[in-house]
Amino acid sequence: MVRSGPPAAAVQAAALWTSEQIALPALGVIAPITRQGARDIATEAWNCLAYAAVTSAVYEALDRVR
User: Fold this and answer.
1) How many Cα atoms are found within 13 Å in the side-chain-facing hemisphere of 30?
2) Which residue range forms the structural domain that includes residue 38?
3) With bands split at pLDDT 50, 70 and 90, how would you rate the model's confidence at 1?
4) Which of 9, 25, 40, 49 could join 56 in a cystine, given CB atoms 3.0 to 4.6 angstroms apart?
């Protein structure tokens, strides 16, 4: 299991983006990915990458304190 570092952030981003692309269209919040434009897809992917990078960095910082 990947627990830290860039590989963990990549796994987190992939899981977040995948679940977002399944759950949000099912809830009617966003259009399915097949109906989204390239800019919308890139924006959502960037948001997931940024979130995963920041939460991974915070986890690493807190883990060092321990």
Assistant:
1) 16
2) 5-65
3) low
4) 9
Residue 45 tokens, joined: 């992917």
Distance CA(1)–CA(49), nearest Å, equals 20
**pTM score, whole prediction:** 0.80
Angle formed by the axes of helices 38-65 and 5-27, to 10°?
A: 130
Please say whether the beta carbons of 13 and 52 come within 8 A. Answer: yes
Buried b (16+ CB within 10 A) or exposed e, 53-64: eeebeebeeeee
State how many domains the chain has.
Answer: 1
